[in-house]
Structure formats: C-alpha cells, structure tokens
Amino acid sequence: MKEREVEEMRKLLKKEMKAAGRAELGRDLWPSMLERLSQGASRVPWWDWALLAGATLSLWFFPAILPALLYHL
Predict the structure, then answer these.
(1) Tens-digit pLDDT profile for residues 11-63
(2) Cα dist. 1→4, 9, 27, 60 in Å?
(3) Which of 35, 54, 59, 63 is deepest in the core (most CB within 10 A)?
(4) What residue spans define the domains of the chain?
(5) Most distant CA pair in the chain, distance
C-alpha cells in the first residue's frame, strides 16, 4: 500500500474507534430481563416434539446410525 492509502486508513480507523468508544445503551436492560424471567417457561412447539419422536424412533429401529449422528455433532 502506498503511504497516502495507509494514512487514509489510519484516519478512518481513528474516526471509527472514537465512535465505538462512545456507544452506550439507551436504557437499562435488566428490568425487561426480569419481566421476561417472571413470565415463566416458554411453550415448546409441537414440531419439536415430532422431531424428538422421529429421532427416537429412528434410533430404536436403526441403531447403526448412531455413530453417524454422533459424528455430525
């Protein structure tokens, strides 16, 4: 890179680093987190149960696929 390009890059980096250093949250997030936690457990969709049942039946009828499944984890 040429000296001029390096200097331009340095100026851009300094400008962005100053902008990133001033970043602050607009509000406190803790009260909303407490509200979400007090709502209780979330519902599990029916298709998650269907996938779990399908995986269980697959392993029951075809136990030889277990090493392949563990490989992909």
Answers:
(1) 998 888 876 666 677 788 889 889 988 888 778 899 999 999 998 999 999 99
(2) 8, 10, 43, 62
(3) 59
(4) 3-39+47-71
(5) 68
DSSP codes of every residue in the chain: --HHHHHHHHHHHHHHHHHHHT---SS-SHHHHHHHHHT-PPPPPHHHHHHHHHHHHHHHH-GGGHHHHHHT-
Task: State the Cα–Cα distance between residues 41 and 47, nearest whole angstrom.
Answer: 18
Distances (CA, A) of 57 to 41, 49, 51, 60, 64: 27, 12, 10, 5, 13
The pLDDT of residue 40 is 80
